[in-house]
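Training component of the fellowship. As part of building independent skills, the fellow (R.M.) carried out the full modelling exercise for a liganded target. The chosen ligand was uridine 5'-triphosphate. The inputs are recorded below so that the supervisory panel can assess the work.
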Amino acid sequence: MPVRVAVIPAAGLGTRFLPVTRAVPKELLPVFDTPSLQHTVDEAAHAGIEEVILISNRAKPAIETFAQQATGNVRVRVVYQDSPRGLGQAVECAREAVGDAPFAVLLPDELMGDSSHLRDLITEHDRSGKSAIGLKNVPRNEVSAYGCVTPQGVPDATGRVGVRDVVEKPNSVDAPSDLVIIGRYVFSRDIWGHLAALKPATGGELQLSDAIGSLARKGGVVGVLVNCSRHDTGTPLGMLTASVDAALRRKDVSPALRAWLERRLSS
Ligand code: UTP
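Fellow's submitted model of the complex:
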């Protein structure tokens, strides 16, 4: 079954961006001159997605305004998660809107250089019928910031590897590998039962990675290594470097920005 729907969770509190997130949702902060959420919607559309379901909460009315004005070849609608209790719960809010079709999930605080990785995940889902999740290699001392996978062997020449289990934020000594989950996924409908069965993790949140781990233990998950450029825009520094990178790629502003940076860094 083709993947036509994408879920983009945007109901979180954005505490790492306080104080700006008291007034502006972090998903609408600009990467240079374009809201990060628009980049994510564009990435989905370029991968062939026809409908985007934005998960928001009523304390973030600007997300709804964005949905009404979103541009591009994709329908955008909003579903609410009024008391955000984690990414697992956010995705489950889309259960009725998505139905039984396979669907993508894109986290808007990861900015991809292009839509090739999402296309790779869709291709892998088409091929295997399993849920496909984006993975990257990190140094062992960084695994504790991520969901870390127990792989079935090593990735093949195309970057595919079976996933046996997921451990959320392990310490570097106990981590099963240096392969961690990034914010791009394509799920088969099998994920819904695992989301519905989620129990609160430490901190009270319903974690998407716990549902993925539970599905993986049934043999339903394949990982695909990302090989396009990406930025983590979930922190102010990540957002700033993504903006500088985006501006340096723009012919209209790049010369002036370069000149300013060179002057600034040599003073
Ligand atoms: P994050 O954990 O990065 O977002 O979730 P956050 O909770 O808003 O950020 P901090 O930690 O307080 O700074 C990744 C994405 O998932 C959404 C967020 O809006 C963000 O786009 N999310 C997170 C939800 O939609 N619901 C949740 O319950 C949690």
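The panel noted the following from the submitted structure. The CA atoms of residues 107 and 183 lie 5 Å apart. Residues 9-16, 27, 55, 81, 84-87, 89-90, 107-109, 234 surround uridine 5'-triphosphate (CB under 6 Å).
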